[in-house]
Description:
Layout: E1 14-17, H1 18-26, H2 34-49, E2 55-58, E3 71-72, E4 75-76
Parallel strand pairs: 1-2
Antiparallel strand pairs: 3-4
Amino acid sequence: MSDLKIYPGSSTPLRLRSHTLLCLQGFRGEGYSPGFVANMTGIHQTLWNQPEATVQVVASPDAVCAACPKYWGRVLFCACPRAKI
């Protein structure tokens, strides 16, 4: 998504769930929808190109969830039943 911007020295961390961090390790450009893939690609590229970026691990919807078609407001229904948050 175009609103993902992390600048060197930024005090605003990128909010990611631990699940997302694991998914990023094996991300191959596939996903739930074109919007989800574009968002995840942007996050992956940002972290690859800016290893100094600050990441905040959260137990709530994160930067990936906004583009997920399974995200309905404040609740995320992932394929994994334990991922409901």
